[in-house]
Description:
Chain A is of the alpha/beta class and 265 residues long. Chain A has helices spanning 40-55, 71-80, 98-112, 132-140, 194-200, 210-213, 248-261; strands at 2-7, 10-12, 21-22, 29-30, 36-38, 58-65, 84-88, 117-121, 144-154, 158-165, 168-175, 178-182, 205-208, 228-234, 242-243.
Amino acid sequence: MLNIIVCVKAVPDPKEACNIKIDPHSKTLMRCDVPLVVNPLDKNAMEAALQLKEQFDVHISVLSMGPPEAGNIVKECLALGADQGFLLCDPAFGGADAYATAFTLAKGIEKIGAYDVIICGMASSDGSTEWVGPEIAAILNIPVVTMVKEIVESDRDRWKVKASLENGYRLMQVKLPAVFTVTRDLNTPRTLSFSGIIKARTKEITRWAISDLGVPAEAVGLKGSPTIVSELSSTESKREAEIIAGTREEKAEFLVQKLADVGVL
Amino acid sequence: MENSQGSVWVLAEQIDCQILGVSFQLIGQARKLADELGTSVESVLLGDHIQEQARLLIAAGADKVYLGNSPQLEFYQPEIYCEMIVNLARERQPAIMLIGSTFMGRELAPLVAARLQTGLTAHCIDLVLDENKILDAKIPAYGGLLSIMCPQKRPQMATVAQGVFPKPELDETRTGEIIPLDVPVDISRRIQTLEVVREATDGVALESAPVVVAGGAGAGDPEGWSKIADLARALNAALGSTRPAVDEGWADLETMIGQSGKVVSPELYIGVGLSGEQQHMVGINNAQVMVAINNDAKSPVFEQVDYGIVDDCREFVPALIKKIKEYQEKKVTC
Ligand SMILES: Cc1cc2nc3c(=O)[nH]c(=O)nc-3n(C[C@H](O)[C@H](O)[C@H](O)COP(=O)(O)OP(=O)(O)OC[C@H]3O[C@@H](n4cnc5c(N)ncnc54)[C@H](O)[C@@H]3O)c2cc1C
Ligand SMILES: Nc1ncnc2c1ncn2[C@@H]1O[C@H](COP(=O)(O)O)[C@@H](O)[C@H]1O
C-alpha cells in the first residue's frame, strides 16, 4: 500500500478575492464574506493522488490547516475520493507564515504516521509563496521536487518526474518518501460526482488542535512565524491615461499614430 | 557570530556556465544594503567550469565569492546545493541572504530557510533597510505595498525576480577574494537531477522584448485570447499574461507578468482586458509608453497607463491589428 498525503489549503474564492482587505490594526487579512474554496492548484494535487489510486493500492489522506470552515473543503476532497480527512484547527495556528504553516503541517503529517508521498500545490492563490511544500520536506528531512508537470515512473520506492524549468524541464529521480509540488500542466482535475458526495457522508474528518500535536504555542501561528507583516503603504501611480475618443476605427487609427509618434512602431 | 553585523549574501546562479542576470542585479542591490550596514557582500556560486565567471561577481560588487567548482555541481542538485549553503551559512552567519526567483531559487530558498529555521519573503519588488537596519522586503498586496520583516531570526531571506533591480556596472579592476568550497562527501543521494532539457521557444522572449502585449481575463475565451496573441505577432511583441489567463489555460505560466511572474521593462506595454491589479502591474518596470484597452471606463488600469481605449477588446483588437498592418505597409512603400 502506498500512503499519499495531499495538503489542501482553503483559500478565499479567487474570483472574489478583490474584496479582501488588510485589517489596518492587526495587519492580517480580513477574509470576511468571501467563501472559502479548495486552492486551485491543490485540485491538481488531489487529481494526481486519485489517478494513482486508480492504478495501485493507494490510501489517500487529505490534510489542511485552517479555520473550522475549512472542514468543508476537506469534505469536498473526501467526496472526490480521498480516504481520510484531517483538519488542523486551533486559534493558536492563526496568523502563521509559510514556515509556521509548514511546521504545523509537518507535525500533522508525523501524527498521521504512514506516508510515502506528500503532494502539495505549487502555490496557494492567496499566500502564493510556494514555500510550504519544500519547507515541509526540509522539516521532515525528506526530498522534494517542486513544480512537477509529469510523473514518468511511480515505482513503489522510487519515482521519476519531470519538473518545470526555464524553457524546459528537469528529469528528477527521487527516493520515497518525498514531497512533490504540482503545476497545472500535470493533469485536469475531475469534478465532484454525486456518488462521491454520498460516499463521503460516512467519512469522518479528524480534527486536531494544538494539544493533539503536542507542540508549544510559541512554535505555531503568529508566534512561530519568523516573518512579520509590518506595514501597508499605498502606492501612487505616476501616470494618468489620456482616454482616446471616437469611433472604433478612429480610436485604432489614433493609437497607431501615437505609437508611431513615440517611435515604437 | 564573528562580526556583529553579518554580511549580505547573494546565492548566485549559473546556467550553462553563464551567471544569470538576476544574480548580478542582486549583487548590485546587496552592495547598496551592505554599504548602508557597513558590511561586505558575499556570494555563493556553484557549478562546473565557472572559475572565470566567479570574477564577474566581484566586478559587479561582491567582496568574496565562495566557489564550488566540480562536475558534481554542474546542474542544480537540491541536496548537495542545500547542504553546502546551509553549512556555510551556519559557519559564516550572514545577516541577509538574497536569491533570484528562478525555478532553482524558488525551490532552494525555502529548503535553505527551513533548515536555518528563518523567515523567507517571496518575490519582493523592493528591498530597503528600516531605521533599525532590519531588512524591509516589500511585496504588493491589496492595492498597496506590504513590508515583510524578519526581526529576530537570521539570515533575513528574500527572493527577487529578474528585472526588479538594475544591473550594476561591471568594474574589472575591483578586487575580492575567491574561496573554494569542497563538495561534502557524505551526502545522502535520495534525489538526483538526471537530465536538464531546454526546449526552443517560439515567439519573442518576454524579458528582452521592446514591445509587450499582455492579455487578461477580459479576453473572455480562447478565441478572444488568440486575437490578443495576433496583436502581439503584428507588433513583433512578446505576449504576456495575467494570472487568470494562466488559470484559464490560455497562456503558459512562463508568460505571466507580475509579482509571482516576470518583471519586464519594455518600451511599449499594451495591457488588454486586464484590470491593472498591483500584483500584475509591479511586473512592468519603467515602461516608456503604456496603453490599456478595457471596456470599463472606470477600470483602475486607466490610472496607471498613458493612453486608454475604452472598448470591447474582442472587437477593438482586430480593428487595431488592421490599422497597424496598414501603417506598416505604408511605411514600407514610402
Ligand atoms: C500573492 C499573489 C500574487 C499574485 N501574482 C500575480 C502575478 O504575478 N501576475 C498577475 O497577473 N496576477 C497575480 N496575482 C493575481 C492578481 O491579484 C489579479 O487577480 C490579476 O492580475 C487580475 O488579472 P486580470 O486583470 O486579467 O483580471 P481581472 O481583474 O478580472 O480584470 C479583467 C478586466 O478585463 C476587463 N474586461 C472584461 N471583458 C472585457 C472585454 N470584452 N474587453 C475589454 N476589457 C474587458 C474588465 O473590465 C476587467 O477590468 C497575484 C495574486 C496574489 C494574491
Ligand atoms: N494551511 C494549509 N493547509 C494545507 N496545505 C497548505 C496550507 N498552506 C499551504 N499549503 C500547501 O502548500 C502549497 C503551497 O502554498 P504556498 O506556500 O502558500 O504558496 C499549497 O498548494 C498547499 O498544497
